[in-house]
Design a protein that fits this description.
The complex is a heterodimer. Chain A is mainly β. In chain A, about 0% of the residues lie in helices and about 55% in strands. In chain A, strand 4 and strand 5 form a beta hairpin. Chain A is globular. Chain B is mainly beta. Chain B is about 0% helix and about 50% strand. Chain B is built from no helices and eleven strands. Chain B is globular. The chains are: A mainly beta, B mainly beta.
Chain lengths: ~110, ~110
């Protein structure tokens, strides 16, 4: 059983298009995250949600809109895609509480904007 | 803004050699985690260190958290080709619902047979 799953695995699209990435976790965790990993492998947090509520928004452009229909799902919709949005996007989840919560990552979605 | 400086960025060694990866910050973290990422996959947690001065061992890997909880190191003894991957350190800022990880830029390790 996959703990954190993302779809699609690969996404190739034209500049200006709108696209969505879906994420689901079956670990029963309260918190979910979206990260962006650039071409230099730098992993940066974008958003975190706790029980469907937005907790962290790391100054991400308004073109990015996360949606959490329930605590097991966190989707990412991106409007008006730009070349600089090309990256690998990772979804992750963790159980809230404590100082050392492990984050479980999905396999990533490689987005290429042409 | 909390920053984690990780070094070296790239490391290519021969099988059997030892290596150390460093993770430094001017900020204090409540805990520090080390992840390993293989191509086409997400990062996977190796270890979490919480207490200043803590040392944890995972087979040939030794992790240390600095006394002031601002830095950490990962030492691999007798590296093997299977150790090849991207190693990421990540500092945790706080607990509760505001829990957030700040990642270093990673160390890409290649162990040649």
């Amino acid at each position: 059983d996959t703990a954190v799953s993302q779809t699609p695995k690969y996404l190739v699209t034209q500049m200006g298009n709108d696209k969505s990435i879906k994420c689901e976790q079956n670990l029963g965790h309260d918190t979910m995250y979206w990260y962006k990993q650039d071409s230099k492998k730098f992993l940066k947090i974008m958003f975190s949600y706790n029980n469907k509520e937005l907790i962290i928004n790391e100054t991400v452009p308004n073109r990015f809109s996360p949606k959490s229909p329930d605590k097991a799902h966190l989707n990412l919709h991106i409007n008006s895609l730009e070349l600089g949005d090309s990256a690998v996007y990772f979804c992750a989840s963790s159980q809230v509480g404590g100082a050392g919560g492990e984050q479980f990552f999905g396999p990533g979605t490689r987005l290429t904007v042409l | 803004t909390q920053l984690l400086e990780q070094s070296p960025q790239f490391l290519s060694i021969q099988e059997g050699e030892n290596l150390t990866v460093y993770c430094n910050s001017s900020s204090v973290f409540s805990s520090l985690q080390w992840y390993r990422q293989e191509p086409g996959e997400g990062p996977v947690l190796l270890v979490t260190v919480v207490t200043g001065g803590e040392v944890k061992k995972l087979k040939r890997l030794t992790f240390q958290f600095g006394d002031a909880r601002k830095d950490s190191s990962l030492h691999i003894t007798a590296a093997q080709p299977g150790d090849t991957g991207l190693y990421l350190c990540a500092g945790a800022s706080s607990g509760g619902s505001n829990y957030k990880l700040t990642f270093g830029k990673g160390t890409l390790l290649t162990v040649n047979p």
